[in-house]
Amino acid sequence: MEIDNPDVKAEVEKVFKEYEKALVTNDVEVLDRLFLDAPTTIRYGGGENLYGYAEIAAFRSARSSSGLERTLDKTVITTYGTDFATASTLFYRDNAPGKVGRQMQTWVRMPEGWRVVAAHVSVIDAP
Fold this sequence. Notes:
This protein is α+β, with helices and mostly antiparallel strands. The protein is built from 3 helices and 6 strands; from the N terminus they run ααββαββββ. The protein has a 6-stranded mixed β-sheet with strand order 2-1-6-5-4-3, with helices on one face. The radius of gyration is 14 Å and the shape is globular. The termini are far apart.
């Protein structure tokens, strides 16, 4: 299995940037599109455990659109073969001084494009 094929990695980096832009602008339509619409899709958030696409979409539609701006750091995207990737990043928000957020996503290439099938977001005290 080839790890970090440059063409595949560029595809995932592009869709990750699309996700990030949608996140900070609260573009719920794009965020929903980038998660796999399946009962097996999971998102563990800062204060919620969401099982299945329906729960994730409901959370997104009810979430406040304020305070979403953030700065990313140490983003690592790794591809495995042509259809599987992980994205890991740290993030910082001005409205959360002294905290560091951690985000991990599992991406899978589906017939309709790259989709998140599992995600984890948490915030801890900055070291």
